[in-house]
Amino acid sequence: MTRIRGVVLAWLQVQVTGLVLLGVLAVPALSAAADDADRDGAAVDAWVKDALPGLVDTYRFLHQNPELSLEEENTAAFAAETLRKAGYEVSERIGGFGVIGVLENGDGPTLLIRGDMDALPVSEATGLAYASQAKTKRPDGSQVGVMHACGHDVHVTNLVGTAQMLAALRGDWRGTLVILAQPAEELGKGARMMIEDGLFDRIPLPDHAIALHVEGNLPAGWIGYVSGWAAANVDSVDITIHGRGGHGARPHSSIDPVVTAAYLVTQLQTIVSRRVNPIDPAVVTVGSIHGGSKHNVIPDQVDLQLTVRSYSDEVRSLLLDSIRQLTESTCLAFRCPQPPDITIKDEYTPAMYNDPALSAKGAAVFEAFLGEERVVAMPAAMGGEDFGRYHRAKGFPAFMFRLGTVEAGAYEAARKQGEPLPSLHSSRYAPDPEPTLETGLRATGRLALSLLGRP
Ligand SMILES: [Zn+2]
Ligand SMILES: [Zn+2]
Hints:
- By secondary structure, this protein is α+β, with helices and mostly antiparallel strands.
- It folds into two domains: 36-232 and 351-451, Aminopeptidase (3-Layer(aba) Sandwich), CATH 3.40.630.10; 233-344, Alpha-Beta Plaits (2-Layer Sandwich).
- The protein contains eleven helices and 18 strands.
- The chain has helices at 2-64, 73-85, 152-168, 190-196, 199-202, 257-275, 313-333, 356-370, 388-394, 408-417, 433-451; strands spanning 89-94, 98-105, 110-116, 135-137, 143-145, 175-182, 208-219, 223-225, 228-231, 233-242, 246-247, 282-291, 297-298, 301-310, 341-344, 352-354, 375-377, 398-406.
- The chain has an eight-stranded mixed sheet, sandwiched between helices.
- Helix 1 (2-64) crosses helix 3 (152-168), helix 3 packs across helix 11 (433-451) and helix 6 (257-275) runs antiparallel to helix 7.
- One zinc ion (ZN) binds next to loops.
- One zinc ion binds at residues 150, 186, 424-425.
């Protein structure tokens, strides 16, 4: 017993001595890290101060010249040219108009920074002097404007600006930087197209991936972030219910697909409420339902379009299996003359997971220069973002943060009046360029330097 106590005491002594030693060693190590962060911050701020006016011009130019998903030719060429001039090895037309820039700068971690380039078919109504005049044709032949209503012009400007900054500051870091300008995010396809076109054969495997997205509900100069699940699996499902059309006055001699569809819509709402665990987020929305042409005609078919959202793979399977089962059995119950057509689009957008450790590191880096009150943890949401596809493909930690964009006065006025601000994808969404870009560049530059190696 005494011997055991002696051994335990000796062990404790070693541990305590070790802790004291560790403490002595850790203090200088911590302050060295703080010194590095201060030095990085000062270098980033000085670069941003000089470059900001030029980058605001770049932003206005991109805003005025938006290109739709899969048509990002000029935006991609601009990104490629800027990267090449800054010393990157550039590959173009990867998965459509995707651009990859690689800057090797000695031994160290590989960091991937991604920005997306595509605009939306929205007629701009901001009234800005640099509003987009671009137009496109809808499938029915009518005209609609093209607008950077999701702020991807901010993303491209931030991406090329950060790339230039880190090339200029290459004496301050070691490792490999991968800059990725992605097409077709709004279709949920661009990341997949780039991966299928050999993205990961062309670059070293990233140790980390970061990106930002503009936020329409946060003032410029603020940053928001979600730790953990931050965007949902997004599936699209098309359903056609087949009936047997006829005269509206003779329902008994028809099989009415409108009534079948009406039942199905309400049945589908029982999936989330009755089949999914209440603490697992899930959405089943029937966004489109079309059938018939006239009051007194029972149509032959009704078409439905659904968006289906989840975080986990298990819930995703449960939702899709349940939709199939309920649709088939409802059609059977209503004596449909043939089984329904159910198409689950295979180009789904996988959920995005913000690595909690990387999110915490990002938040600490941002708080160090913005102050704690301007860096806000945001609630998770069920939007879609195909940035998640990269880390899902290879398993490295990733982090996308939200960049505040709203002009301070407009934000305050909206808050006081309880009025909602124009959301992303709205024709009136207008970021405040200078403070938005300044904060984005300072945040991305500092976070990048904190993830790359030291010389
Ligand atoms: Zn969008
Ligand atoms: Zn977007």
